[in-house]
Amino acid sequence: MPLFWKHYKSDTTAFIERLKARRPTLEDEQRQGRALLWDRHLDRDALAEYQDDRVPQQPYVYQTK
After folding, report:
1. Is the pTM higher than 0.85?
2. Is the Cβ–Cβ distance between 26 and 19 less than 8 Å?
3. For labelling, which of 35, 49, 56, 61 has a CA lying 20 to 30 Å from the CA of 15?
4. Where are the alpha helices (DSSP H) in 1-65?
């Protein structure tokens, strides 16, 4: 390793570190936003009922019988 070797840090990594330093609550905000849409408990009975009640789609949607 050379004497004047510097550790490389990409622009993206530097940007993320600056952003986290400016907004320390950023990760908590991201977790809260994720919990709104993704981290949900599914009602398996309701989901099974929904899948059973689906009407199969015709091969060509715009054709009437």
Report:
1. no
2. yes
3. 35
4. 11-22, 26-37, 44-52
